[in-house]
Design brief:
Blueprint (H helix, E strand, L loop, with lengths): L4 E7 L4 H12 L5 E6 L4 H5 L7 E5 L5 H14 L4 E6 L3 E2 L3 H9 L7 E10 L14 E3 L8 E4 H4 L14 H11 L3 E12 L5 E5 L2 E5 L4 H17 L6 H17 L4 H16 L1
Parallel strand pairs: 1-2, 1-4, 2-3, 6-9
Antiparallel strand pairs: 4-8, 5-9, 6-8, 7-9, 10-11
Helix pairs in contact: 7-8, 7-9, 8-9
């Protein structure tokens, strides 16, 4: 089945050492790899280090994660791939991940699954902070793009990745779209990915533990903006009260814990204003 699986990676000014680690882990499992580069400044540098088996396509400027993911899925469809594993540039998959995905993808009881995910270990946190899972496969609400294993045919029964989102919430949006079409999103009980979101740390707010990611200010803009767009697009699955809770949590996170508070608060309000327009 691996000959019908494509691995798609989106790059934008990647850390070359981590990207090499990423590709080395993939190449141990599969050779069908497509990289979409979003106008990286260090493109010439890392291009020389890529194996010749990799297909490389490039935009001259940053067109956003959603557009690049759309192109990966289009490439998969044109070349008759059945499943696509999408990866962030700084993610490293565990040995055996693709075999685990394929093992479940061919079983009859999972023929209604539009996307699989796996257990993920964030490098920013100790192992005991990771979520534990007892069942072999569980249905989940959504998952991140990195290590998502997406069925090409079922993907094309949705409206696809939403290019207007540009970067944040692109992954949640496609999960909601798949579920609205009657497909399941499931997670397998296998630690399959080593991942990193910003420079995350755990902090306490009252009695609740929250995660502070210290992402760049422009990400705050898209988080605030796209949270509203998600409610507008998926009113039943992402209702207004949940949207407001997400925005409030982001506001509190910036106010109390994030660095560059002034700039990030400005981006937060700009995102809300633009979404309302």
């Amino acid at each position: 089945m691996l000959d019908k699986v494509l691995v798609g990676i989106v790059t934008f000014n990647p850390d070359i050492r981590r990207l090499k680690e990423n590709i080395a882990a993939v190449n141990m499992q599969i050779k069908n790899v497509l990289i979409i580069d979003n106008g990286s400044k260090n493109f010439k540098e890392f291009k020389l280090l890529l194996p010749k088996t990799i297909t490389l396509l490039r935009y001259s400027s940053n067109m956003g994660i959603a557009k690049a993911l759309c192109q990966i899925m289009d490439y998969a469809k044109r070349n008759n791939y059945i499943w696509v594993l999408t990866l962030d540039q700084d993610s490293v998959i565990e040995s055996g991940l693709l075999d685990e995905y394929c093992k479940y993808a061919i079983r009859n009881e999972f023929q209604d699954v539009g996307m699989f995910s796996c257990l993920i270990r964030d490098r920013n946190f100790k192992e005991e902070k990771q979520e534990k899972q007892i069942e072999n496969v569980i249905e989940i609400t959504y998952c991140i793009t990195s290590a998502a294993f997406t069925n090409v045919e079922k993907y094309y029964n949705t409206s696809g990745y939403d290019e207007s989102f540009f970067i944040d919430a692109v992954d949640f949006d496609i999960c909601y779209s798949l579920r609205e079409c009657g497909y399941r999103v499931c997670r397998i009980n296998f630690i399959g990915l080593y991942h990193e979101v910003g420079h995350g740390e755990n902090r306490k707010f009252l009695w609740k533990e929250i995660v502070v990611y210290h992402q760049k200010p422009f990400r705050i803009y898209y988080l605030a903006r796209n949270t509203i767009l998600m409610n507008r697009k998926h009113k039943k699955m992402f209702p207004k009260h949940l949207m407001m809770m997400k925005e409030l949590a982001l506001f509190i996170r910036i106010l109390l814990y994030e660095n560059e508070k002034s700039n990030k608060m400005k981006q937060f309000w700009n995102g809300i204003v633009d979404a309302k327009k």
